[in-house]
Amino acid sequence: MRIIGIDPGLRLTGYGCLEMQRRGPDPRLVEAGIIRLDPLASVATRLVELFRDLGSLLDQLRPQRIAVEKLYAHYAHPTTAIKMGHARGVILLAAEQRGIELVEIGATEIKKSLTGNGHAAKRQMQIAVQACLCLREMPHPPDVADAIAIALCSARRGAAAAQALART
Prior knowledge:
Blueprint: E1 2-7, E2 12-19, E3 28-36, H1 43-61, E4 65-69, H2 78-98, E5 101-105, H3 107-115, H4 122-132, H5 142-167
Parallel strand pairs: 1-4, 4-5
Antiparallel strand pairs: 1-2, 2-3
């Protein structure tokens, strides 16, 4: 099974695609990177760019699951959440159009599953992703590490559910 984690943004959208191994619990990193959007373009234009580029990426990688962070609004930055909601909407639409399973996971759960700390900093997440996948270098920029972390958390959720079913 292939799982792609996506960290939505209107300037940079990170992605990380994992493939679950038939033998062993550890997934393999297939590809990771960023979709870079023109920061000078209008929000509408960037959403069209994101939809086009993400669609091409999904068609190329052919994941069976898309994992995305749940929307969280901090009281001090409500407009950030609204803008991220636009990008998330594009991701949800692309998943639905292709019939790809969609999983939404809270930021605290993602951070806790990788670091043990639900409030881990960006650098801690980069280090944790590097260690989990035995990468030679830390994923950079942090948006890439966040996307891989989202995919890893989704994979771990799936593995835990499969183990629970096997025990019953």
